[in-house]
Amino acid sequence: MQESLERDLIDTVNPITASWNFLSDTYHRLGSPREFYTISRYTTPIFGILFLTLSLIGTYFGLFVAPADYQQGDSFRILFVHVPVAWMSMFIYIVMATAGAIGLIWRIKMAFVVTICSAPIGAAFTALALLTGSIWGKPIWGTYWVWDARLTSELILLFLYFGIMAVYYAFEERKVAEKATALLSVVGVVIIPIIHYSVEWWSSLHQGATVFAEGGPKMPAEMLLPLAFMAVGFMFFYGYALFLSMQNRVLENEHKSRWVREMVIRQGKNNELVRFFLHGRLRLRGLDLLGFNIIGASRICDFS
Amino acid sequence: MPSSKVISVKDLSCTRGDNQLFDAVNFSVSGGQCLHVTGPNGCGKTSLLRLVAGINFVEHGEISWNSSDTANNPNFYSECAYIAHKEGLKNELTAIENLRYYQQLDSGTDEVALDDILDKMGILKCADLLAQQLSFGQRRRLSFARLLIADFTLWILDEPFTGIDTSGRNLIESLCVEHLQNGGLIIMTHHQSLVDSPLNQYRSELKLGRA
Amino acid sequence: MFRNTSSLIQPLVFFIIIALLFPFSLPAEGELLQRIGGGVIWVSAVLATMLSLESMFHSDYQDGTLEQMLIHPRSLPLAMLGKALAHWTATGLLLTLFSPLLCVTFNIPSEQIWVLFAGPLLGTPSLSLIGATGAALTVTLRRGGVLIAIVILPLYIPILIFGAGMLTQTAQGLEVASQLYALAAILALSITLAPFAIAGALRVTIN
User: Fold this and answer.
1) Biggest distance spanned by C-alpha atoms of chain B
2) What does the pLDDT look like over B122-133, one tens digit per residue?
3) Count of CB contacts below 8 A, A vs C?
4) Residue B124 exposure: Cα atoms within 13 Å on the Cβ side
5) Structural domains counted in chain C
6) Which of B7, B48, B56 to mutate to test binding with chain C, by most C CBs within 10 Å of its CB?
7) What pLDDT is recorded for position A215?
8) Nearest-CA distance A107 → chain B (Å)
9) How far is it, in rounded angstroms, from Cα C52 to Cα C84?
10) How many CB pairs under 8 A join B and C?
11) Is B166:B120 a contact under the CB 8 Å cutoff?
């Protein structure tokens, strides 16, 4: 009875089951490096375009449409960068740890790639959040650095990112490095709430939450709109940077497999590069330390 | 010891970095058999042994003990002993204390048995010396003494005859023969031929690495 | 462990020396030392614990005992819990016993000394347990010491905050129960979770 009911549900073109099937299919395809590479070649530029459009709209609204703050004047406008960037720094850590847990439990190769490629991007966002925070702090608090809860938490988060990256690069054997990194990011995600609350208790100079406060946002719509645009835009930037960086790493990890070689031969017009691929070990380590692998990746992926 | 125990390896492969050490290794060893793994240096002999013993993760392939998977299988771990270059001896403890530590881990408390084992291995006179004062050969003998403290069915031995004198080698060989006659299993690596050894009649050979 | 007494004494001596370096580097005011003394003792305890972490699994890894533990039918997390607690008795417990002595040199009022005893008593086991995870992750690396510090120190911050925070509270005449509860909660969490993380880390890195 139960089974036939389920079959009926699947047979009828239910938009929920259909989209679920699509999602699970995509998920399984993304689990294979080759399929991921094929899919991400199409999605990555879309992410890039969405990021540019949304963040440009957000910037315009943030700089020219949103009214000046009655207390902080125009200096508050850095909020449109600072707040989404700070959100992203935490969001990326969660993605990274979740992917690490998935990789460790179900032994999915691509999950480890997500973890490792997220770390430099997350670290960059965290550093940016700290930078914009202290630039904003100068006119408001009169000093670049205040030992307040959120700045401090953010700084500790940056150290966690550094620790995770350091662990990855310390191991020579890639599989060990991937698993160790995943494990550490999972351990970190357990401790992050504790760090957050301890730091919160330790000091609270910072202004209270204004967007997700009880009883709805305490912010006019003209300010909320550009903030939302910027937040979603940065989300797409993360997708864009992550996929480029993952493409790069997939090529490096799989450079001995047949599909990479065939693709390189098919696309390669530049003989130097083909020879580099077929005989030399692909080395982009120096480039991808701080998310700069985007340059290297795009050069390799798009030489056709 | 029932002779029905069997370890079988299916389609096992091992990669280190970008190098594939071996691919699609298949074998099956049952009671009274000794598998002799041979091959040039760096062909993955030790890696194979570590995979079978459960120290390294199995990425591709299956290893089963009496037709159940060996990974996280306490039945397998309690019947398998692994002796390698790293002897697992504590320098700060005396010979007999080292042995007692392993005996107590397996819930044994028989002091007389420890003396007997040390005597059998010919190192009873150094029972109260610290492990760091023992010679290399004596340490090897002490680490082999561990095989005798409990009823291990499967012995995994990585180069058992390195650094040991002729009488020691004869001793270990006779221990192995006794173990095999009792229906035990042995998987070992040794870089030299074992044709002249008393183990030869129990032996089958697995060649790793491209010829 | 008692055969190798130097490794037993090293963290303790290191702890005392680090703590006593501070008075030399600060203006000689009794009041200032009294104010920062508790924090100094906590930082020294964290550093001394961290220093001893590298050797925690090192000899076991070198002589092959760790491999034998991995393939032993007994529970690895349980063995690791024992290992971490043994580490604690040699570092954290000893440091805790000696911290009241240091309090005297910092002129910390005697009614606050119990805070510098109870705090470390609850906090240092967590330091050993969390630290053991880092030690297990880096045991196979030739130069793991700095990496342990990078990985572990950020995770030590909550313990440091609550531990040292107790002193500020008592100095202002406030209750410290909430910080003690927080340290106890962290300890409960690390006793239950850290052994599995340590065992997992060892299985991952020893390959």
Assistant:
1) 51
2) 888 888 888 888
3) 73
4) 11
5) 1
6) B56
7) 54
8) 9
9) 12
10) 51
11) no
